[in-house]
Design goal:
By secondary structure, this protein is mainly α. It has three domains: 38 residues, no CATH class; 43 residues, no CATH class; 65 residues, no CATH class. It is built from nine helices and seven strands, in the order ββββααααααβββααα. Strands 5-7-6 form a three-stranded mixed β-sheet. It has a two-stranded antiparallel ribbon with strand order 1-2.
């Protein structure tokens, strides 16, 4: 048993910080108070450290996320449920104030170009051919044909089917236009 020089309590050796001559509870209180008094300096130093060790920090964060994925998922769902109104109003306000940023984010998310292969008619939808090498090519399809099969580029659900339909339409475009009398649309 050892006496803490700060609170004058008798504590066990494993609860004592022999370097600071304080018990761990007193040392913790001291560090919290010091942090509050020197918050700006601490924040600047933290930013410098993170910038200097960016890659190392990325690896640590990724490892932590993968090992605690379920816990973080539950926490984020609970947080969203508790703060739904606050989050939605904040995001609406942010989108109103940052219209240009939102447009850029949307473009970056999709990473799609625009290189039309065929002629556009009224009531036609533009379908981006999602090929392994390029997402720039666009085939205009009749809306009913474009909606014929459910497809989603992010998860690749139905993309092979809609791409083959689009390519078949492009190859046999005249046939489709005559068959369904689409030239007048």
């Amino acid at each position: 048993m050892v006496f803490c020089k700060k609170c004058n309590r008798e504590v066990s050796i494993d609860e004592y910080d022999s370097i600071q001559y304080k018990c761990k509870r007193c040392q913790k209180e001291y560090l919290q108070l010091y942090h509050l008094q020197h918050k700006e300096k601490h924040n600047v130093n933290s930013r410098k450290y993170l910038m200097k060790h960016k890659e190392e920090n990325k690896i640590k964060c990724k490892a932590y996320y993968t090992s605690h994925k379920d816990e973080l998922s539950i926490y984020s769902k609970l947080y969203y449920e508790r703060n739904k109104d606050k989050i939605l109003t904040y995001s609406k306000e942010w989108r109103k104030q940052n219209i240009d940023k939102c447009r850029m984010i949307d473009v970056k998310k999709r990473k799609l170009g625009y290189n039309p292969i065929n002629t556009k008619f009224n009531w036609f939808d533009a379908h981006h051919l999602h090929l392994e090498s390029n997402n720039d090519f666009v085939i205009f399809l009749p809306r009913w044909l474009h909606l014929f099969t459910h497809h989603r580029p992010k998860t690749w659900v139905g993309m092979d089917t809609i791409n083959s339909i689009a390519l078949d339409y492009w190859i046999n475009e005249e046939f489709y236009l005559e068959l369904y009398d689409l030239k007048g649309w």
